[in-house]
Amino acid sequence: MANIIITTHWSDGDVLPFLHIGKYLKKKGHDITIFTHCCYEKRIKEEGINFVPWDNWNECENLFNDLVSCSDIVASNEEIQVFRDKYESASVRIKEYQLLKPYCERKDTILLAKSRSSIAALLIAEKLKIPLIWVYMNPYEYESSKSFNSINREKLCEEANKLRKKMGLKSIESLFSWQCCPKGKIGLWPNWYKSDMVNEPEDINLVGFPLEPLNRRKNLSISITLKDILLENPAPIIISGGSSKKIKKEFYKIAIKSCSNLGRNVIVATKYKELLPDIIPSNVYVFDYIPLHESLAYASLIIHHGGIGTVSNAINAGVPQLVLADCLDRPLNGSIVKKIGLGDYLLPIMWNEENLIKSINNLLSSDYKKKCTRFVEEHKEENTFQNISKIIESVKEDEEYIISYETIKVCSRKINHYVNDKKEKNNNLNSLPKDMKKYLLEKIKKEKILNKVERG
C-alpha cells in the first residue's frame, strides 16, 4: 500500500475525477490525501478521504470569478497575464510546495497530479525524489499546453527558472519540457475518444473515463422533487452549463427557449441564476444542483457546455447530447461527440432556435437513443480504476518514475527532435471546419478592435 498525494486545481471537471480515483484507491487500502480548493472539502471528506485546501473561501470565490475573464476562446494576453500573476506566480507555487511537503515525507509516497497546473507537485517530486504520475484530463490539455508554451516560451522559461532557483534547482530549457518529463503519464479518456485536430504524447497511457458505475437502484442523492420530474413520461431534457460561470450568456436563454414547446419537462441545473432568462417557461424546472451522474439515467437528452465530465457521463448513461461549446477543451469534445455519432455539436454562430429545435428533434428519435445504448454496451469494460491501480503498483518500485535534472534534459531533447524531424499533424486554422474558422476569425477581429480602442 502507498501514501498517495493527489493535487489538482480549478472546477468540477478537474476535481471530481480525482475524487472518484481517490475513493477507489482508498478501498484498495492506500492512504489518500487530496489537495484542491476549499469548496470541495465537504464532498471529499464525506468519502473519508483526507483533504487539504489550497485556499480559503474568499480566495476561492475570487478565483472562480476571475476564471470567467480567461474563459473566452480568444482571451487577451493582458487578461491571461493578470490571472497568472495572481494564481500561478512563484509565490503561489512555493506556498503550495510548503503545504505539500509535510504530507510527502513517508518513503512510500506517490504523487498523482493534474498536468499543467500542478507545478508544486513537480517541485516536490524532483526535490524529494518522489515518483510522480502526471494526469491529463482531456485530449486538448497537452496540445493547449504546448501551444501556450510555444507562444510564450521565453517568458515562461524565465519564470520557471526563477522559481527553480529559489528552490535550489538547476535551470531548464523550457517550461514545457519540465511539464512533459514525468515518465508516468495517464490520460483520463479511452483510446476511442480521439480527434485528428490535436496531438497526444506518444507515451501517454489512456486509462478510460473515471466514472463510477451507473446504478438506477441506488439514487440516494436524488431528492424526491427531482425524482418525480425525472420519472415523468416522456423523459425530461437536462440543461447544464457546468459548475462555473465560464459560459456564453446566450447559452441558457437559447437552450431553454428551444425546449419550451417540446411537450416534455426540462431540468436546468445552475446556481448562477443571473445567467437565466427573466421568464422561465412552465415546463422548465431550475435546480441549483443535481447529481448529474444519477439523473442522466432517466433523461432523454442533455444539452450542455461540452465539459469532458458531462460528455463522459452522458456517454456512460447512453443519453444523446447536444453540445453548445465555445471555449477551452469544449469545442474539441463537441466535435468528438458528433464524430462518433452520440450527439450533435453547434458552434455559437449556429445558436438559434431553428437549428436547436431541428437538432433536438433528431436526437430525441428512438433510433438515436438505441445507437447511444448500443455504444455503451460495446464499450462498458474499460476498467479505468483497475488500470490506474496497476500503474500505481508499477510506480512504487520503479526508480524511472523519479524526476531528476537529467530526465528533464532527456525530455527536452526528445521534444526538440520531435519538432525538428517529425512532421506533426496539421492542426492549424486551415484544418478547422468552415464554421469554426469563421467564428475564430470574428473573435480575433473583435479582439484587435477592442485593443485599439483601449490604446486610444
UniProtKB/TrEMBL annotation:
Gene3D superfamilies in UniProt: Glycogen Phosphorylase B (3.40.50.2000)
Alphabetical list of Pfam families matching this protein: EryCIII-like_C, Glyco_transf_28
What are the protein's UniProt keywords? Answer: Glycosyltransferase, Transferase
Q: Which Enzyme Commission numbers does its entry carry?
A: 2.4.-.-
Glycosyltransferase recorded as keyword:
yes
One molecular function GO term is:
glycosyltransferase activity
Q: Does the keyword tRNA processing apply?
A: no
Ranges for domain Glycosyltransferase family 28 N-terminal:
5-131
Q: Which residues form the Erythromycin biosynthesis protein CIII-like C-terminal domain?
A: 259-393
User: Signal sequence span per UniProt?
Assistant: none
* Broad EC category: transferase
Please state what the protein is called. Answer: Glycosyltransferase
The organism named in the record is Clostridium brassicae
